[in-house]
């Protein structure tokens, strides 16, 4: 440390879920952004005891009205001067509409001030994974209506399929999906996270993200970053990825003279895919992620041995033992970011974007 | 960075208010502890748009039942394995009783396991300041009932008066107040924050904290740390102080062989006041605080000039102008911790405890 935060003063509105224990949603996103110097306003859409992957939890959701009221509270005290907004999991269509309204409101304010680059919305369209929808059906059309107002979206492969209506089975269909997102919605920046297609130049046991910043004619400028898969199950990685993209995108744009003043921070057409701020940001984010996940996985192995022993010793029987093991596993898999802050600031690993 | 967190793996339950924008309650406490490597479970007792010093806010309180439910949620998933607990502002007597029950429950669990030092409760009895009570009258007796179960309390001068029933007007009465807290409640560790009594050996424009760890016979072992006052009005300093005390107390105890296994981390009678882990912790905490507050105050001056100009230019009149200026001032006074993380890890200033 000592060399200061990587971004200038940056005020971010982060809207996502809050868990008392563990690291998903705003619980990981807010800390990630604060650690890198952002002043984060954290609007929590739920307060749950723990994330739903444990299969049991307590707590309450925040209503659409409460979300709107909290935003009005910020407005009336001149606290709505946000440079960026990150929205993650929002429970239900009505609450999502309320969040979308906030983003559109902030966008309109920037337009009125004739400062088009002064507000940037990163939208993580949390709907499902691996073919399973884990939000209500009526949430999908709400996201489709909101994408056009966002500056950067971060769908996983399944969510990209839902939004683009293109089934992704290989590299050509992935390209078509990105094209559809740019052309149909006019969304300037897209990163599709955790693409698991096999490809001749991609080693097995690896994953990739594929990103693109559109040109003025809404053409794709796509890059790919391949990174080794880690043989552990984690929660909250998408939320951490999104939060770090907020910071690193801001940093990369700040380091490109004039870009921060352009609407949606859209690079000129002459800029190559591999030179995009989006690509530079994703490279750094993946390096930090890979280090934190590797360290979490190492600690997890030790914890799981202990958990196994505890369950074997315990008084539970049959299903009770299985349930306890699942709960202890879920806990052992919580991201260990607070123990490895240096991986955020200055990761030692490097990943490089390649042409897609 | 790079030299790792100052504490071993530490799981803290933090119970306090949450504000969307700004830095009071859990919003500053959770980040402070996470930045120093603690795994913090954040149980938010309210979600307000901003702190009440702005004189207007929106949001909702969490009920006593919801607080209890969230804790039950942690328990049922083996997530109640806390090393420490920090409780701050809790809205109302019923909610405070629910929080007190959680602490007593965790204390009882540690006792049943015959590991008396394995749980440590830091209780910040948030009731008022400078002669003004800002909680309901019925909250005071609840705190009086809970103090006996806490390990460390951090009242300000006014709160120390309420709890000890000793009016603090000079050094002898301050000593009597601490004596009363140790003897009546058996509270092992006390730090009275922001003592503003004048004293021959204390320069004007300075403040002090006075702390004491009792002996086995409940005698006081008091120390004082004098530090320069900063001519700025801040919010959230008490919450940041409490959070940092959690971490630095854990660190100081960890560096004292055998102490972590003793009930309430109570040093042996032979340990001098100035050698107490409580004194070592408070020295480090005040150094960090002083740096962050100094930097916040510097940035505030610049922001206030801008705010003044904005208000003069604005369309508001009379009371409207005053209100706007107050709101902009409140915002400018928010702690700038996220921009100065190095002041947490490794402050360059040093303060030393002296005999009281």
Write the SSE topology.
The structure is a homodimer of 356-residue chains.
Chain A: E1 11-19, H1 25-35, E2 39-48, E3 59-61, H2 64-76, E4 84-87, H3 93-112, E5 120-123, E6 128-129, E7 132-133, H4 139-146, E8 152-153, H5 157-164, H6 171-185, E9 189-195, E10 206-213, E11 222-228, H7 237-254, H8 277-313, H9 319-332, H10 342-345, E12 354-355
Helix pairs in contact in A: 1-7, 2-3, 3-4, 5-6, 7-8, 8-9
What proportion of the residues of chain A is helical, as a percent range? 40-55%
- What's the tally of helices of chain A? 10
Summed up, the domain count of chain A is 1
Which oligomeric state applies?
homodimer
Do you know the CATH topology of chain A? UDP-N-acetylmuramoyl-L-alanine:D-glutamate ligase
Shape of chain A: globular
Largest sheet of chain A: 10 strands, mixed
Low-confidence sequence ranges of chain A:
none
CATH architecture name of chain A: 3-Layer(aba) Sandwich
List SSEs of chain A in N-to-C order. Answer: EHEEHEHEEEHEHHEEEHHHHE
Q: Name the chain pair whose interface involves the most residues.
A: A-B, 56 and 56 residues
Global Rg of chain A:
20 Å
End-to-end Cα distance of chain A, whole Å, is: 35 Å
Tell me the name of the CATH homologous superfamily of chain A: Ribokinase
Kindly describe this structure.
The structure is a homodimer of 356-residue chains. The first copy, chain A, has 356 residues and is an alpha/beta fold. Chain A has one domain (11-355): Ribokinase (UDP-N-acetylmuramoyl-L-alanine:D-glutamate ligase, 3-Layer(aba) Sandwich). In chain A, 42% of the residues lie in helices and 17% in strands. The first copy, chain A, has helices at residues 25-35, 64-76, 93-112, 139-146, 157-164, 171-185, 237-254, 277-313, 319-332, 342-345; strands spanning 11-19, 39-48, 59-61, 84-87, 120-123, 128-129, 132-133, 152-153, 189-195, 206-213, 222-228, 354-355. In chain A, the strands form 2 sheets. Chain A has a 10-stranded mixed sheet with strand order 3-2-1-4-5-8-9-10-11-12, with helices on both faces. A two-stranded antiparallel sheet of chain A has the order 6-7. Chain A is globular and about 65 Å long. The model of chain A has no long low-confidence stretch (mean pLDDT 94). The interface between A and B is large, with 56 and 56 residues. Chains A, B: Residues 297-324 form a coiled coil. Chains A, B: This is pyridoxal kinase. Chains A, B: It comes from Bombardia bombarda. Chains A, B: Keywords: ATP-binding, Coiled coil, Kinase, Nucleotide-binding, Transferase. Chains A, B: Residues 119-245 form the Pyridoxamine kinase/Phosphomethylpyrimidine kinase domain.
């Amino acid at each position: 440390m000592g060399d200061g935060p990587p971004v200038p003063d940056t005020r971010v509105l982060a809207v996502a879920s809050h868990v008392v224990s563990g690291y998903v949603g705003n619980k990981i996103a807010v800390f990630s952004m604060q650690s890198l110097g952002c002043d984060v306003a954290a609007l929590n859409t739920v307060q749950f005891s723990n994330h739903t992957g444990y299969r049991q939890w307590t707590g309450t959701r925040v209503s659409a009205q409460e979300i709107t009221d909290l935003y009005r509270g910020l407005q009336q005290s001149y606290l709505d001067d946000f440079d960026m907004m990150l929205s993650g999991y929002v429970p239900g269509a009505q609450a999502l509409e309320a969040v979308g309204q906030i983003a559109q409101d902030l966008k309109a304010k920037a337009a009125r001030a004739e400062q088009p680059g002064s507000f940037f919305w990163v939208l993580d369209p949390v709907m499902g994974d691996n073919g399973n929808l884990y939000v209500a059906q009526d949430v999908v059309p709400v996201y489709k209506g909101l994408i056009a107002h966002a500056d950067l979206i971060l769908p996983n492969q399944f969510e990209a399929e839902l939004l683009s209506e293109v089934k992704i089975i290989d590299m050509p269909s992935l390209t078509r999906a990105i094209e559809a997102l740019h052309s149909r919605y006019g969304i300037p920046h897209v990163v599709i996270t955790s693409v698991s297609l096999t490809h001749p130049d991609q080693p097995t046991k690896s994953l990739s993200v594929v990103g693109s910043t559109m040109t003025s004619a809404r053409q794709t400028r796509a890059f790919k970053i391949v990174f080794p898969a880690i043989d552990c199950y984690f929660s909250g990685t998408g939320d951490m990825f999104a939060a770090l993209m907020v910071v690193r995108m801001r940093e990369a744009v700040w380091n490109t003279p004039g870009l921060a003043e352009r609407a949606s921070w859209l690079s000129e057409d002459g800029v190559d895919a591999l030179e995009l701020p989006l690509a530079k940001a994703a490279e750094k984010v993946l390096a930090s992620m890979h280090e934190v996940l590797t360290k979490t996985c190492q600690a997890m192995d030790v914890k799981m041995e202990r958990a196994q022993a505890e369950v074997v010793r315990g008084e539970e029987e049959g299903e009770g033992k299985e349930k306890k093991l699942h709960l202890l596993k879920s806990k052992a898999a919580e991201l260990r970011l607070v123990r490895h802050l240096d991986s955020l600031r200055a990761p030692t690993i490097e990943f490089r974007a390649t042409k897609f």
